[in-house]
Amino acid sequence: MTAPTALVVVAHHRADSLTAHVGDVAAARLKEAGYAIDLLDLRAEGFDPRMTEADQPDWDDRDKAYSPEVRAHMARLLAADVIVPVFPVYWNGVPALLKGWIDRVWNYGFGYGRSEPRLAGKRMLWLGLAGAGDGDEFAAWMQETLDRVLREGISFYCGIPDSAVAVLHDAEGESQTVDAEGNFSKGAPLTGDARAAHYAALDRRAEHHLEAFLGL
Ligand SMILES: Cc1cc2nc3c(=O)[nH]c(=O)nc-3n(C[C@H](O)[C@H](O)[C@H](O)COP(=O)(O)O)c2cc1C
């Protein structure tokens, strides 16, 4: 029996980001669980998130041949059993790099617009990193918003009902709060052992989300 494949999509503009690190942690955990890994680092692969004429849907032709680059991404999606986008939460949503990948690749006639969805049967865990703490007054609202847009608006809409959104809170080395007047303040930066423990716990939470979602 061939190993199932996990497509881990890293959406960050810096190679040394915490997001890229969590992408590596997720890939390692999936590999340990027996998955073959396809690590798609959108920055490293030079993916341009801007929509192009070639990849714009033609509502009269769901069989439109999109650009070779986008077709290559579609093939990687089709080959995956599990899809795990790893991204920083920007404005309660995904960063432009990931949004553009969805816009261009999860396209009409491929992601949606067919009676039998091409992506049916796949599973998807959206793994977002957020600066806000889980006790922050925005946290529940952010989770709800991400859930609506990503799990329902994208995964479910594209034939993947088995999906979830997990948020790793406190993804900064120092706590952040916004008071009633809108003033932003940062706590003392973590250093030394406390910093190492903070990031180790974050790695562990990322692994835990994968384990819980996939039953590892
Ligand atoms: C443009 C921008 C928008 C952001 N929006 C949010 C937000 O809506 N909610 C939140 O909790 N954090 C927000 N953050 C904080 C990021 O989620 C956080 O810095 C990131 O997850 C840290 O990971 P990184 O070091 O890999 O970038 C935002 C950061 C930026 C730069």
Automatic annotation (TrEMBL):
- Kindly indicate whether the keyword S-adenosyl-L-methionine belongs to this entry: no
Matching InterPro entries: Flavodoxin_fold (IPR003680), Flavoprotein-like_sf (IPR029039), NAD(P)H_dehydrogenase_qn (IPR051545)
- What region holds the Flavodoxin-like fold domain? 6-176
Q: Which domain of life is it from?
A: Bacteria
Q: Does the keyword Oxidoreductase apply?
A: yes
The species this protein belongs to is Glycomyces sambucus
Gene Ontology cellular-component terms for this entry are: cytosol
An annotated Gene Ontology molecular function: NAD(P)H dehydrogenase (quinone) activity
Q: Which residues form the signal peptide?
A: none
What's this protein's name?
Putative NADPH-quinone reductase (Modulator of drug activity B)
Keywords assigned: Oxidoreductase
By sequence similarity, the record places it as follows: Belongs to the NAD(P)H dehydrogenase (quinone) family.
